Amino acid sequence: MHVDEKTVRRIASLARLKVTDAEAKSLEGELSGILDWVTMLDEVDTKGVEPMTSVEATSLRLREDKVTDGNIGADVTRNAPLKEDNFFVVPKVVE
Amino acid sequence: MSAASTKTDIAATQAALKSGKQTSIELTTQLLAEIDKRRDLNAFVQITREQALKQAAASDALLRAGKGRALEGVPISIKANMCAKGIETTAASRVLEGFVPTYTATVVQKIMDAGAVIVGSTNMDEFGMGSSTENSCYGPSKNPIGVALGKPDLSPGGSSGGGAAAVAANLCFASLATDTGGSIRQPASFCGVVGFKPSYGLCSRWGIMAYASSLDQAGVIGKTVRDTATVLDVMIGEDVKDSTSLKPVGTSLVAALDDQAKKKWRVGFPREFRDLVQTPILKSVWEAAEQRVKAMGGELVEVSLPHAKYALPAYYILALSEASSNLARYDGVRYGHRSATASDITDMYEKSRAEGFGRETKKRILLGTFALSAGYYDQYYEKARRIRTLLANDFRAAFKSVDVLVWPTTPTPPFAFNSHSADPLTMYLEDVFTVPVNLAGLPAVSIPILSSPEGLPMGLTVTGPHLGDQAVARVAHEIEREIG
């Protein structure tokens, strides 16, 4: 599987990662190499095989729907790069 | 009073602490001095000196009152991806520089509640992504055995390389670590110590920075199987905050080691791994394993894992897909690095992430994003999940005829830094013996089995069925005893 520079840029945009021209160029070869290697999985016939999601066959348990904590706005926003009165501050998103 | 010994194992330390021959303050002070002396190893990224001394003093008071808990006064380190309230926790990523958690990971809280003294956090590959610690924003750790042999350019392995180096250099009695594809076992093997990754679900993942959630599992690096079992017994337990955590079954791990009942263990070795044993050093590991198993009265049985050769590529597809999703949270909004030059919100996301993540992490996020993207999802992600089912079934079939399986932990003794830079894919191939266990969620221990002619350590892996941790601990302990 060959990944060209345009595809690298498309994936980078999906992953919200800025890549420089030089990075895109070098990643093109590296990503292609790894994807070539994983094509060996095509050798395996997986028709009718259920995909494995979790080690445990049981479904995730649910907890009772009740408040277990709260009023920790200061804690939640403590590590924010930019905040105001326990709100996260981001660049303007609506014109 | 005599100088505290930092070189003994946990059992001996606990005996000295309990009898009053040694105080935790003395031991912790001595250990902190040793940590300072061994800054060359770059094993620690945070040293929690004041907090450690406070905990040690509290432990001494309890010990004097005869109220010591399971790990009272024993100095232990944690991996840099485990949140501890008030201690900068970054998973060795620039993207989390300055992040100080307001809460403590369940496994860390559990060892603190058992009286352990936390001396600091240890170095790792960024978010657990690597097998050498070269991907840490703090620079790589050194392999203490390599340093002693005049080879300071040898890797301690990874991702938990700092923890393994710290244990090997007697800078802590055990290190809490995590293992997504071998991150406990491979560094333990490289540093000549024991690494125990329990069954998936036994230890809570809450408060640990996620890499690939269906594979991540906490465990312990220690000096002996018994030490890792002692610490794991404290860490294990169901946690309402981690919906994949399980109720433990059976006896404690330490009780399994102390079980006097003689058992003729059926020890399997997978044909597919034996086929990979082509080098002299791997052949010696294989022979040594056979000898030890025979010496402990075990029966050797050949088994087959027909899909083992597909484990590595399937693992990388799954781990990287999950990583691309897990690491989406680092967006410069709620915590971590935010770019100073962003023009709008998308630019802020893209630049913050580009500036914060290291190169390997970016590569893995991109590969995972690709494997999950429209048009490729079935070909890569779904395919890998189906192969995961086949591999788990292979293991289930094998454990019908054997109690445990053994094989070498690593293809080679510790490699040198930069030895994989010409072809980065070769670094992924280093994980060939470790990832199958994670895909199937099995318990596995790596114990030192021999030294290469140059004096470098090689580890042996003992693995068992899901939730068969007691058998794994017991057999690893018996093989360890045969090595003497």
Give the helices and strands, then pairings:
The complex is a heterodimer of chains A (about 100) and B (about 475).
Chain A: H1 5-14, H2 21-38, H3 73-76, E1 83-84, E2 87-88
Antiparallel strand pairs in A: 1-2
Helix pairs in contact in A: 1-2
Chain B: H1 10-19, H2 24-37, E1 44-47, H3 49-64, E2 75-79, H4 106-113, E3 117-122, H5 144-148, H6 161-168, E4 174-179, H7 185-191, E5 194-197, E6 217-222, H8 225-235, H9 253-258, E7 266-270, H10 271-274, H11 280-295, E8 299-303, H12 311-326, H13 345-356, H14 359-372, H15 378-398, E9 404-408, H16 425-429, H17 435-440, E10 444-451, E11 457-463, H18 469-483
Parallel strand pairs in B: 2-3, 2-4, 7-8, 7-9
Antiparallel strand pairs in B: 1-3, 4-6, 5-6, 5-10, 9-11, 10-11
Provide a descriptive summary of the structure in words:
The complex is a heterodimer of chains A (95) and B (484). Chain A is mostly helical. Chain A has a domain at 5-41: Orthogonal Bundle (Histone, subunit A). Helix content of chain A is 34%, strand content 4%. Chain A is built from three helices and two strands. Chain A has a two-stranded antiparallel sheet with strand order 1-2. The mean pLDDT of chain A is 92. With 484 residues, chain B is of the alpha/beta class. Chain B has a domain at 10-257: Alpha-Beta Complex (Amidase signature (AS) enzymes), CATH 3.90.1300.10. Chain B has 18 helices and eleven strands. Chain B has helices at 10-19, 24-37, 49-64, 106-113, 144-148, 161-168, 185-191, 225-235, 253-258, 271-274, 280-295, 311-326, 345-356, 359-372, 378-398, 425-429, 435-440, 469-483, and strands spanning 44-47, 75-79, 117-122, 174-179, 194-197, 217-222, 266-270, 299-303, 404-408, 444-451, 457-463. Chain B has an eleven-stranded mixed sheet, sandwiched between helices. In chain B, α4 (106-113) links the parallel β2 (75-79) and β3 (117-122). Chain B is globular, with a radius of gyration of 21 Å. The two termini of chain B are 31 Å apart. The model of chain B has no long low-confidence stretch (mean pLDDT 96). At the A-B interface, α1 and α2 of A face α12, α13, α14 and α15 of B.
